[in-house]
Write a structure and sequence with these properties.
2 helices; HIT family, subunit A; binds zinc ion; binds guanosine-5'-monophosphate; alpha+beta; globular; five-stranded antiparallel β-sheet; Protein hit; catalytic activity; 113 residues
Length: 113
């Protein structure tokens, strides 16, 4: 989608700190680091949200999540990690290209919640 900022990140029009890439998926650091290493995982195919997500794209997206989570674990040594996905503005989605937040957790004062 031409006016989607995450599509622009995928095609390099907007710079990003890349964490992982394969044929179907791109992962990069969130511009607003809620916790250190806060990462967004997105499908290269533009899908708006979970309601718009076809099964093949869902499988490709979630297949990459354990690899990326383990990379974050190795790099940042968090004590845990939240995966989070907002769908629809009522549910706090602000960018309408589906994304999974990976939020490394360090302690009770790490900035999340
Ligand atoms: P949402 O609120 O839709 O679940 O999450 C959207 C996320 O995208 C936010 O955490 C926001 O910081 C992040 N974001 C928005 N614009 C950009 C950008 O241009 N670059 C990066 N790396 N992250 C962005
Ligand atoms: Zn998009």
């Amino acid at each position: 989608m031409s006016d989607c900022i995450f599509c622009k990140i995928i095609n390099g029009e907007i710079p990003s700190a890349k964490i992982y890439e394969d044929e179907h998926v791109y992962a990069f650091l969130d511009i607003s680091q809620v916790t250190e290493g806060h990462t967004l995982v997105i499908p290269k195919k533009h899908c708006q949200d979970v309601f718009d997500l076809d099964e093949e794209t869902a499988a490709n997206l979630f297949k990459a999540v354990p690899k990326i989570a383990n990379g974050i674990k190795a790099a940042y040594a968090p004590k845990g990690l939240n995966t989070l996905n907002n769908n629809g503005s009522f549910a706090d989605q602000s960018v309408f290209h589906i994304h999974i937040h990976l939020l490394p957790r360090y302690d009770e004062n790490d900035g999340f919640k």
